[in-house]
Write a structure and sequence with these properties.
This protein is of the alpha+beta class and 86 residues long. 30% of the residues lie in helices and 13% in strands. It has a single domain, classed as 2-Layer Sandwich (Alpha-Beta Plaits), CATH 3.30.70. The mean pLDDT is 80.
Length: 86
């Protein structure tokens, strides 16, 4: 198993977790239950996505592609160009 990504927050972690599962990758979200200890635990490094060694490269590539994705033209409001509002 390899820790391939440290999400900034639980929302990003759950979103990426779901994306990887939908792509057929066996993924584990480490630290999900530690967030209640923030204040006594360090804030950085609690969350991590972990996958089997043989799926690590594909999972990293999928996350990298997700992080550079841009909204399709016309999907964002005119007042906020380049920003996709969900």
């Amino acid at each position: 198993m390899q820790r391939i990504y440290e999400p900034e927050n639980l929302l990003e972690a759950e979103l990426l977790f779901g994306m990887l599962v939908n792509e057929g990758i066996d993924v584990y979200l480490a630290g999900r239950h530690l967030l209640g200890g923030v204040g006594e635990l360090p804030m950085q490094g609690l969350l991590g996505l972990t996958v089997p060694d043989e799926q690590a490269e594909r999972a990293r590539r999928l996350i990298a592609e997700y992080n550079v994705a841009q909204p399709l033209a016309g999907d964002e409001p005119e007042s906020l160009p380049g920003i996709l509002i969900c």
